[in-house]
Amino acid sequence: MELWIRSQDKDILVKVDSLLIDDNNNDIYTQCWVGVNLETYTLGKYKTKERALEILDEIQEKILRIGEVSLMVNPLLIEECVYEMPKE
Fold first, then answer.
1. β-pair type (27-34, 13-16)
2. Which has the least CB within 10 A, 20, 29, 56, 86?
3. Are the C-beta atoms of 37 and 63 separated by less than 8 Å?
4. pLDDT in tens, 6-43
């Protein structure tokens, strides 16, 4: 599955493999290989970590919906899934 995200300021459209929250300033960012360089792109800035987590939840829901559609088209496709690590 390919996931493309457009940045909050609309300046970046990037294919992402992972998203992270910077705990220092609640930015959501991704790291992508561009040629031989690992580049970091900030996709959004939020006032609180809770809001940044809400955004990640929304993205996760979108991934799950895409997975459901893929399974309807081809039931053998099970690459779109999300596992949440337990708290304990």
1. unpaired
2. 86
3. no
4. 999 998 888 888 899 999 999 999 888 888 888 899 99
**Residue among 74, 88, 53 nearest 1 (CA):** 74
Three-state DSSP at 70 gives: helix
Within a 13 Å sphere around the CA of 59, how many CA atoms are in the beta-carbon half? 21
Q: Report d(CA 40, CA 44) in Å as an integer.
A: 12
- Report the Cα 58 to chain-centroid distance in Å: 9
The set of residues, in sequence order, having a beta carbon less than 8 Å from that of 8 and lying 6+ positions away, is 43, 44, 45
DSSP state of 76: T
Q: Please name every residue paired with 23 in a beta bridge, in sequence order, or none if there are none.
A: none
Full-prediction pTM beyond 0.70?
A: yes
